[in-house]
Specification:
By secondary structure, the chain is of the alpha+beta class. It has ten helices and 15 strands. It is globular, with a radius of gyration of 22 Å.
């Protein structure tokens, strides 16, 4: 696939390697006119997770939840998505809000059913390079991104939340696998709640005062250069809170990804670069807040872009990999200073429970006859 890069057509006679990192003089990039205008902010309907029973009794009456890690990822067994009721779909949304990503195996969904199911969660979104208005085809990656990044500015193999640069970035995404190699092509996710919790208290306070610069410009140019297809919309730069508050859980999540974030609005260039360098380390060292999913045909993953990042794991497999992804619009990211981190909430609730227990034991002692 990388053979389409314009850079690879301009070879140095001295080294045998391309002489240009990213040629903006390429007519493919220079002359493209997007057919659609930039989007305007919308206010989506109240999140379906807000309508769910906190105990998820309807969902768990038909599905067995299996936590894959402490921080992120739940597998739901013995259930078909196609059979879930609206109430169960709402409870699934809340589970995704809390666990970041939820997995299913051996699903019987068709593309038409998947689209209809996902319309329950809001207005279907459309990736800038997506041609079908209701879904996008997702393939794997057999490229060496370490090499490709020498010649194109978009770090395509990095951690990201889907189109985080939009004014209204997506909330939920669902990927259903139709073709897949027996080995390779995994996807990994990281918890934004966990990434926030893993920061020191001083760093938390510092980052909470920043806006991350999310841009589609690097992807825009690379799509034109590498894929030879035109993005639907012009490139956009958005400043979103570096720590965002989830509208359903009320928890703080780190809102910085290395796929689309190029800096921080409030910082000077070298300050910004060094902080971004730290976050690259922070994301790639977050094994305690990540989960890696081995796909097979019929597998499904549903995740919440507001509280997780993800990336495809490149490989050298030759068998086809093809999935169908549906996505819906979310709210414009916001930060509520009164919100709390997940670990902070757990400590608070534990302390409250212990306090009640001590109080109860005290009353029992007082009322027990000598």
């Amino acid at each position: 696939m990388s053979a389409g890069l314009e850079s690879l057509k301009h070879i140095s006679p001295d080294s045998g390697f391309p002489i240009a990192i990213h040629p903006h003089f390429s007519p493919k990039i220079r002359d493209h006119v997007p057919p659609e205008p930039l989007r305007k902010e919308i206010v989506p309907d109240k999140d379906r997770g807000s309508f769910a029973d906190p105990e998820k009794k309807a969902l768990f009456s038909v599905a067995k939840p299996v936590a894959l890690t402490e921080s992120i990822g739940t597998l739901l067994e013995n259930v078909q998505l196609s059979q879930l009721t609206p109430q169960q779909l709402d409870e699934l949304a809340l589970l995704v809000n809390e666990r970041g990503v939820v997995f299913f195996r051996n699903q019987d969904l068709t593309t038409e059913q998947q689209v209809k199911l996902f319309e329950h969660y809001g207005i279907l979104d459309r990736h800038p390079a997506q041609k079908d208005v209701k879904h996008v085809v997702i393939r794997g990656s057999t490229e060496d991104h370490r090499e490709i990044n020498k010649y194109t500015p978009w770090p395509s193999g990095e951690w990201h939340a889907d189109t985080s640069f939009e004014i209204n970035p997506p909330s939920y995404s669902l990927l259903r696998m139709e073709e897949h190699p027996p080995v390779g092509g995994d996807t990994a996710w990281i918890s934004g709640y966990g990434l926030y919790d893993a920061l020191s208290d001083s760093m938390k306070k510092f980052v909470e005062g920043l806006h991350a610069v999310h841009t589609s410009r690097l992807q825009y140019d690379t799509i034109l250069d590498l894929w030879g297809v035109g993005p639907n919309r012009p490139p956009i730069d958005s400043h979103h809170p570096a720590v965002r508050t989830h509208p359903v859980t009320g928890l703080k999540a780190l809102n910085v990804n290395t796929g689309f974030v190029t800096g921080f609005a409030e910082l000077k260039k070298f300050e910004s670069d060094k902080l971004l360098e730290f976050f690259q380390y922070h994301l790639h060292s977050a094994d305690d807040h990540s989960v890696r999913w081995k796909w097979d045909v019929g597998s499904v993953a549903m995740w919440d872009n507001r509280c997780v990042l993800h990336r495809v794991i490149p490989g050298s497999y030759e068998a086809p990999r093809r999935g169908i992804r549906t996505t819906v619009f979310g709210e414009k990211p916001f930060y509520d200073p009164a919100s709390e981190g997940r670990a902070e909430r757990e400590r608070r609730l534990k302390a409250a429970t212990n306090g009640q227990s001590k109080e109860s034991n005290g009353e029992k002692l007082i009322n027990t006859p000598a």
